[in-house]
């Protein structure tokens, strides 16, 4: 999401919305004609990320976009495809929301007050304090957007692998040194992922249709059955289910 925002931010502010079309009751529930009419004539002020949401601030109100699992927000694509369920006509070009599975959303003035602090902004003291209050598994906790906002499945696996923490470890039981390792890994992994423009596993591209490259640096996610790149043979990366999400870890490096 950060990469998508960074690819949109230099181009959208100052652009005027001429008209909009929304065609999916899943992506834009409610009266879509009223929604589209509300946008006509609005001027885009800024584009930012909050957790997993893209917030497009207008001169009145804001659009909040969640890409779900397969959504894309494309600027000046050649032509809308068959899965283009949101088409925003700008004073120059198009902003297209494309989503084959329609798991994402486009909302007006969405309330994001439930989201926790940003993972690259929260300090170690506050992070540790929040850990101490949680008796849940570490993998599930990192995915909890009320704990910290913006960490997805891929990055939760990579963070815990880098910190040598088992995904089933109980958050409140982590020692201070191990909590510090998770906090450090969180900052380092996310910073590196942003530098490599995210992980393109299947559908993900930025607003210009360009794929990311961080998937080439994964140490845990998607490497089930392969040797751990840190500790080597005979340990193999395992895959289990945590919080209904496929979870990858090294049984040798990551102890509870």
Give an account of the 3D structure:
The mean pLDDT is 93. The protein folds into two domains: 2-108, MutM-like, N-terminal (N-terminal domain of MutM-like DNA repair proteins), CATH 3.20.190.10; 124-249, Helicase, Ruva Protein, domain 3. Helix content is 24%, strand content 21%. The radius of gyration is 20 Å and the shape is elongated. It is of the alpha+beta class. α3 (124-132) packs across α6 and α5 packs across α6. The longest helix is centred in the C-terminal third of the chain and has 20 residues, at 176-195.
SSE class: alpha+beta
Rg: 20 Å
Instruction: Work out the helix count.
Output: 6
Average predicted confidence as pLDDT? 93
* Strand and helix order: HEHEEEEEEEHHHHEE
- What is the spatial order of strands in the main beta sheet? 1-6-7-5
How many domain units? 2
Flag low-confidence runs.
none
**Highest-level CATH class of the largest domain:** Mainly Alpha
Number of strands: 10
Distance between the first and last residues' Cα? 31 Å
What percentage of residues falls in helices of 4 or more residues? 10-25%
Q: Rough shape?
A: elongated
Please describe the biggest sheet, giving its number of strands, its sense, and whether it closes into a barrel.
4 strands, antiparallel
Q: In the CATH hierarchy, what is the architecture of the largest domain at level 2?
A: Orthogonal Bundle
């Amino acid at each position: 999401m950060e990469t998508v925002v960074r690819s949109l931010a230099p181009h959208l502010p100052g652009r005027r919305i001429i008209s909009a079309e929304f065609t999916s009751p899943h992506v834009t529930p409610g009266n879509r004609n009223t929604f589209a009419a509300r946008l006509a004539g609005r001027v885009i002020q800024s584009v930012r990320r909050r957790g997993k949401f893209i917030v497009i601030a207008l001169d009145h109100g804001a659009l909040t976009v969640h890409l779900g699992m397969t959504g894309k927000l494309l600027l000046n694509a050649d032509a809308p495809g068959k899965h283009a369920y949101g088409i925003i006509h700008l004073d120059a070009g198009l902003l297209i929301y494309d989503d084959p599975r329609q798991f994402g959303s486009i909302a007006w003035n969405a309330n994001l007050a439930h989201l926790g602090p940003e993972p690259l902004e929260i300090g170690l003291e506050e992070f540790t304090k929040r850990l101490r209050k949680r008796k849940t598994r570490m993998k599930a906790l990192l995915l909890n957007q009320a704990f910290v906002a913006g960490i997805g499945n891929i990055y939760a696996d990579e963070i815990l692998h880098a910190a040598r923490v088992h995904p089933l470890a109980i958050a409140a039981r982590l020692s201070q040194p191990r909590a510090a390792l998770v906090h450090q890994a969180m900052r380092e992994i996310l910073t590196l992922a942003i530098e490599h423009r995210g992980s393109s596993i299947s559908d993900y591209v930025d607003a210009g249709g360009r794929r990311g490259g961080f998937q080439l640096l994964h140490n845990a996610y998607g490497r089930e059955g392969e040797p751990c790149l840190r500790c080597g043979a005979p340990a193999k990366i395992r895959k289990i289910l945590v919080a209904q999400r496929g979870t990858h870890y090294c049984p040798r490096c990551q102890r509870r």
